[in-house]
Amino acid sequence: MDVIRLTGIRAYGYTGALPEEQVLGQWFEVDVCLWLDLTFAGQSDHLSDTLDYGTVVQTIQHLVKTAKFALLERLAEAIAQAVLHPADSTLMPVQQVQVALTKLAAPIPDFAGKVTIEILRQRH
Q1: Does the annotation mark 103 as catalytic?
Q2: Within 10 Å of residue 121's Cβ, how many Cβ atoms?
Q3: What domains sit in the chain, N to C, each tagged with a CATH number?
Q4: Residue of 65, 68, 103, 114 marked catalytic
Q5: Is the full-model pTM beyond 0.90?
Q6: Dihedral (C-alpha) 71, 93, 50, 96: value to the nearest 10 degrees?
C-alpha cells in the first residue's frame, strides 16, 4: 500500500471543551497520511489517476472551520470519516487514514505546548 502525506493543514476553528473556545475559536493544524494504491498513477502519469490532494485539504479545512465539537477526538474522527467516505464518490478511495490533529494553543494554565490527538482508521 502506498502513502500520501499532507502536512501543515491549518484552519481556524471552534472545537473545545470550554464555552469560550466554541465562541472565540483558535488555530488548529492537521497532518494526514493516506494509504491507497498509487500503482496506476505511477504508470500513467495522469492527474486523473491519483487522489486530488486539494479536495482533501479543502474538506479538512471546512470541517475544522465549521464543526463545533467539545473534544479534539471527535473532530479527528470526523476528519477521518470524511477522508475515508468522501461526499464526492469520484475521488480515488483511501483505504486507511492517519489523522494528527493539533491544538496550537490549548487553554491549560502554565502550559505553552501543543496538544495533538492522533488516530488511525480503515475503510470497512
Answers
A1: yes
A2: 17
A3: 2-122 (3.30.1130.10)
A4: 103
A5: yes
A6: 50
